[in-house]
Every structure is written in structure tokens, then in C-alpha cells.
Design a protein that fits this description.
CATH topology of the largest domain: Rossmann fold
CATH superfamily of the largest domain: Translation initiation factor eif-2b, domain 2
Number of strands: 14
Mean pLDDT: 97
Distance between the termini: 44 Å
Bound molecules: 5-S-methyl-1-O-phosphono-5-thio-D-ribulose
Low-confidence stretches: none
CATH architecture of the largest domain: 3-Layer(aba) Sandwich
């Protein structure tokens, strides 16, 4: 079974279900699951069955559409429909705090409701369906564009390091950090990819190494604490990572350990690129200090992957799921509108004004 043949996130129209690859089962099993209730979808996001900022956004869009369908069956008027829609939206939005794509997608869906107040509830639900499908289709186009721009920054034969999984499994088709790799592969580039295993949930080992191997890349898995060694060996020409939220000043929240990789890259003069759909750029967040960082359970570090606990019982644990990479460590941020360099706030303002046109 090849994971590349499966959709990361899709809508099953007949069953009215959100269909995902259960990423907690990878790489040992490719299990495709269908989720119908809002609670099941909330759990899937919370438990990282579907994860990665763009994939979470797409799943939330489809999830809220499915709930709107249900609400429409019993809502007596627009106000009742809207109030129940808002409650479902807030609930889904509480599943994870850091990836802005979640609220971005849910807000887009809410705008569809608000801008079509004068239509019947059935017509509004049809428009919500259209919007959810557009969010999904857009992800493919956006990641492709990031891939094309990213490819201009590398050359055939390069060694690239990536952290966590910002691949197809974190989006719909190309991923973000992996988009230049997939587009390069299409054009015949032979790239050497180094994947950090990404403690504690091992998205690099379980997901990135897996999907890149299945896609036929030359991929080498390393522990997180080996990144300095491979850089010093001269094996890395550039680092590409994804992100969960980019602040207006260019500070970037991404999987825990990203800032360590960026610091090392600076030490070894290796360009450090962040691949960010504009959906992940949050101009309402001024700096990285304003980003809420998800904290997770101690067991992920102490016992989850081991036959027996590998830390003393009751030891204090700090387990933030993300960290902030300061903008001065970032060589450039690659969006679907082009490559942005410091000062980032100016670059983003220019891009958003182009996007609004
Ligand atoms: O906790 P996760 O697995 O959802 O974290 C994912 C990441 O940190 C990714 O790098 C980020 O969401 C970008 S995905 C294109």
C-alpha cells in the first residue's frame, strides 16, 4: 500500500463523512477512517489523527460544512441556524490552539453564512459545501506555487534538511516544506533529504521519512540532535520547514525544535527557509511572543513510545508542541505569492494588498 495513493483529507459525499488517513497509525498501517459527528472530527484534530496546519484547516472546513448540513435539517430560521453554526465553529476551533489555519478556515466558512443571510438555509449549506471544497482545492494550488518558488532557491543534487512533517500528509498534495522537493522531483532533480525524527511525537520519522520514501526520494532519517553533525559535515545546502502561525514581524511558530535547527543553520551559514501559505500568516499577531503554544501531556516524552517508562515516575516534564523561531534566523519565507525577505511586515503587507486585488 502506498500512502501517496490516498487523500490526506477528503469529503465522502455519499456517506456525508470526513475521510482521513489516521496518522497516528503510520507508518505501520495505512488506515483510512470516515468521521461523521462533530465530536469525532474534534477528537481527530486533538489526537493528531489529522495534523499539520493546512490539513487541519481543510478538515475543519469540511467538518463545519457537515455540521451545517445537520443543523439545516432542524433549524427553523436563519438566526437559529447561525447561532448553532457559531457554537459548532467555536467547538471545532478549540481542538488545537497554535495552527492559525484552523480559525482561518472556520472564519472563511462563517463569512459564507453571513454574506448570504438573504438566501435559504439550503442554499447557504450548498455554498458552504462549495467553500469547503475550494479551501481544499486552493491548498493544492498554493502548495504547488510554494514548490515552484522554493525550487528557485535550490539546485539539482542539493542536500535538504526538514523538521517535523510539512509534507503531503500535512496538507493535500505537495505539502509546504516538501513542495520544492516534489516539484524538483517532477523536473528530474536528484535531492538528498534529511528528515529530523522530531521528538516527541516523531512526525519526522513516522510521517516525513515514510511519505518521502514512498515517493521515491533519497531520504535519510536522523535524530534531532544530529542536525548539527550533518550540517558540519557539509551535507546540507538548505533547510525547509513549514509553520503553524507566522506573526506579522516574521517570527514563526512551528514544531518544537525548529528554532534549534534555525540556530544551527545560522551557525553553519545554511539558508533557512520557511514555507508558509498566506493562510498561515497571521497579521493580527504582532510577534512570536503573542502566539499561544500548545502544551501536551508528559507521557509523550516519558513513556508513550517505550515498552516501559523511560523517565523516573513523577518527574517534572515540559512538553510544548511548538516553538518560535525569531525572524532574524529566517533567510526567507516562501508564500504562494512569492519569496518574502526581511523586513517581513512590509513584505506581507505588499502580498496581502496584492491578494486583495
Ligand atoms: O503537531 P503537528 O504534527 O500538527 O505539527 C505540525 C507542524 O509543526 C508542521 O510543521 C506545520 O503544521 C506545517 S504543516 C505544512
Amino acid at each position: 500500500m502506498n500512502a501517496m495513493n490516498y487523500d490526506t483529507v477528503a469529503l465522502d459525499e455519499a456517506k456525508q463523512a470526513l475521510v482521513i488517513i489516521d496518522q497516528t497509525k503510520l507508518p505501520n498501517a495505512i488506515e483510512v477512517i470516515s468521521l461523521t459527528s462533530l465530536k469525532e472530527i474534534w477528537d481527530a484534530i486533538y489526537l493528531l489523527k489529522v495534523r499539520g496546519a493546512p490539513a487541519i484547516g481543510v478538515a475543519a472546513g469540511i467538518g463545519i460544512y457537515l455540521e451545517a448540513l445537520r443543523i439545516a435539517d432542524t433549524a427553523n430560521n436563519f438566526d437559529e441556524f447561525y447561532q448553532r453554526f457559531l457554537k459548532a465553529k467555536d467547538y471545532l476551533n478549540s481542538s488545537r490552539p497554535t495552527a492559525v489555519n484552523l480559525s482561518w478556515s472556520l472564519n472563511r466558512m462563517e463569512q459564507v453564512v453571513l454574506q448570504n443571510k438573504d438566501k435559504t438555509i439550503d442554499e447557504i449549506v450548498a455554498l458552504l459545501h462549495e467553500e469547503a471544497m475550494e479551501i481544499r482545492a486552493e491548498d493544492i494550488r498554493v502548495c504547488r506555487a510554494i514548490g515552484e518558488f522554493g525550487l528557485t532557491l535550490i539546485k539539482d543534487g542539493d542536500g535538504l534538511l526538514t523538521h517535523c512533517n510539512a509534507g503531503k500528509l500535512a496538507a493535500i498534495k505537495y505539502g509546504t516544506a516538501t513542495a520544492p522537493m516534489y516539484v524538483g522531483q517532477e523536473k528530474g532533480y536528484k535531492l538528498r533529504i534529511f528528515a529530523d525524527e522530531t521528538r516527541p511525537l516523531l512526525q519526522g520519522a513516522r510521517l516525513t521519512a515514510f511519505e518521502l520514501q514512498q515517493a521515491g526520494f533519497d531520504v535519510t532519517l536522523i535524530c534531532d540532535n544530529m542536525a548539527g553533525a550533518v550540517m558540519r559535515n557539509g551535507w546540507i545546502n538548505a533547510v525547509f520547514v513549514g509553520c503553524d502561525r507566522v506573526a506579522a514581524n516574521g517570527d514563526v511558530a512551528n514544531k518544537i525544535g525548529t528554532s534549534m535547527v534555525a540556530t544551527l543553520a545560522k551557525r553553519y551559514n545554511i539558508p533557512f527557509y520557511v514555507c508558509a501559505p498566506t493562510a498561515t500568516v497571521d497579521m493580527a499577531t504582532a510577534t512570536g511572543n503573542d502566539i499561544v503554544i500548545e502544551q501536551r501531556k508528559a507521557a509523550e516524552i516519558t513513556s508513550m513510545w517505550y515498552e516501559r517508562p523511560m523517565a523516573p515516575l513523577g518527574v517534572k516534564v515540559y512538553n510544548p508542541a511548538f516553538d518560535v523561531t525569531d525572524n532574524e534566523l529566517i533567510t526567507a519565507i516562501i508564500t504562494e505569492y512569492g519569496i518574502v525577505r526581511a523586513p517581513y511586515d512590509e513584505g506581507f503587507r505588499e502580498i496581502f494588498s496584492r491578494k486583495a486585488r
